[in-house]
Write a structure and sequence with these properties.
Blueprint lengths: L1 H33 L33 H36 L1 H6 L32 H10 L4 E7 L4 H14 L4 E5 L2 H9 L4 E3 L4 H9 L2 H17 L3 E5 L3 E3 L13 E5 L4 H5 L1 E6 L8 E6 L3 E8 L3 H16 L5 H10 L13 E3 L5 E3 H7 L13 E3 L6 H12 L16
Parallel strand pairs: 1-2, 1-4, 2-3, 6-10, 11-12
Antiparallel strand pairs: 4-9, 5-12, 6-9, 7-8
GO molecular function, one term: glycosyltransferase activity
Subcellular location: Golgi apparatus membrane
Keywords: Cell wall biogenesis/degradation, Coiled coil, Glycosyltransferase, Golgi apparatus, Membrane, Signal-anchor, Transferase, Transmembrane, Transmembrane helix
């Protein structure tokens, strides 16, 4: 509906613009007739006029005083011809737009116009919309969680981690590092009663969902991947309540407050599995097929995946659509891996038979939001990089998570210079 209304508005605007141009040019002719030498310039012939290539602009007529009224009449005729042509073009454009909108119901949904049309600024100054507006908070979705978040969140933002008893020891390192930094706005979503008790004993903000059979079954018995799928469903409520969530796995050590290092310009801002600038931020990967001879090189775009265990997600419609898409695919394709699904939904563009997700994304700085491959393969061996203090370290690349987490604390918090040395780069 909005699309239709907009289109009608455009057609009216189109003819108004044409009318305005016609009147303007007419006035120009009258003034040129009355003031053949112009108001200021002594010699109008020395002025060159730019040639307009745009269909929407009408060439200014040269009105010479000597030819007078005849000239004006002829210009007038030309003008109304141009005007008619212009109106025809606007009509055709509208017809094309209408055809495009009706061609596909999905397209029409997406064509909702968010604001008044605006003129593009000068070269190099235009910026597209990437920061989507937040949703209207809906407390009725979960009043109990709404009340809890109102107490905990800072600036409508909160760190959220899901945990069951399997990860209890890592959870302890996780919340102790958060406490040490002094971050107040964090919450553990407990998947079993042991974790509820453990958090209460340690004065850690904890939330347990109301009983929900499917969810509780996965939560209690599930391995890493099953729990990962669950989190997309749980996260939805946080977003619906209007909160920006920094979703965090528990194999993460906090060294600074991450909320001081977010850009908040994108729907999803995520840490990367990449291990250097190229792999983390994207590069042109040339595929070589020698049998093609002259055209042997095909260029491809590559980027290492986002880590779905640590990302900041703003409460916007595209963000919620992302969570829904991922949760839906994890249900209908039980063998899929949530991180792969998360990345595919974020990355693949629309194509025949598929409408892509129109979410904006940002890759976090790999030295501030550091994965354990960057730390153990590069940073600890580099005299300059090892002096920098990351915001977090995520022990995602190594199975011996617990000892490596403790080593990270020893190195960065307690200043033990050799704390990282005993570990191999990868697992052995
Ligand atoms: C990686 O990117 C950062 C930020 O753009 C830059 O400061 C740094 O020099 C780059 N490092 C390398 C090795 O290119």
């Amino acid at each position: 509906m909005a699309g239709r209304r907009e289109k009608y508005g455009q057609s009216i605007r189109g003819s108004r613009i044409a009318g305005a141009i016609a009147i303007g040019v007419l006035l120009g002719c009258v003034f040129a007739f009355l003031y053949p030498n112009g108001f200021f310039s002594p010699d109008p012939r020395s002025q060159s006029r730019p040639v307009s290539k745009s269909n929407l602009q009408v060439d200014s007529p040269n009105c010479e005083s000597t030819e007078g009224v005849n000239m004006m009449k002829s210009e007038n005729r030309k003008l109304s011809e141009k005007n008619a042509e212009l109106q025809k073009q606007v009509r055709e454009l509208n017809q094309k737009l209408q055809a495009a909108q009706q061609g596909n119901g999905r397209t029409q949904e997406q064509l909702v116009v968010s604001s008044q049309p605006q003129k593009a600024g000068p070269f190099g100054t235009v910026k597209s919309l990437r920061t989507n507006p937040p949703v209207m908070p809906d407390e009725s979705v979960n009043p109990r969680l709404a009340k809890l978040l109102a107490e905990i969140a800072v600036g409508k933002e909160v760190i959220v981690a899901l945990a069951n008893s399997n990860v209890k020891s890592m959870l302890e390192v996780w919340f102790n590092s958060i406490k040490k930094v002094g971050i107040p706005n964090y919450l553990v979503v407990a998947l079993d009663d042991t974790i509820v008790e453990f958090c209460k004993e340690n004065d850690v903000p904890v939330y347990k969902r109301d009983p929900d059979e499917n969810v509780d079954f996965i939560g209690k018995s599930g391995g890493n991947h099953a729990v990962s799928g669950l989190k997309f469903r749980i996260l939805r409520e946080f977003l619906q309540l209007g909160y920006g969530v920094l979703l965090s796995d528990v194999d993460i050590v906090y060294l600074q407050n991450p909320f001081d290092h977010l850009y908040r310009d994108s729907d999803v801002e995520s840490m990367s599995d990449g291990h250097n600038n190229m792999t983390a931020y994207g590069y042109n990967d040339v595929f070589d097929e020698p049998s093609m001879g002259w055209a042997r090189y095909a260029h491809t775009m590559r980027i290492w995946v986002y880590n779905s265990g640590f990302f900041y997600i703003r409460p916007t419609i595209p963000s919620i659509e992302l969570l829904d898409r991922v949760a839906d695919r994890l249900t209908t394709q039980p063998n899929s891996w949530d991180q792969a699904v998360f990345n595919e939904e974020l990355a693949f563009p629309s194509h025949p038979g598929y409408v892509g997700l129109y979410a904006s994304r940002r890759t976090m700085d790999i030295y501030l939001f550091m994965n354990s491959k960057v730390l153990f393969k590069t940073v600890r061996k580099d005299a300059n990089l090892k002096k920098l203090k990351p915001v977090i370290v995520h022990v995602n690349y190594h199975p011996d998570k617990f000892p490596r987490m403790k080593a990270v604390v020893e190195y960065y918090v307690n200043g033990k210079q050799d704390a990282l040395d005993a570990f191999p780069d990868g697992s052995e």
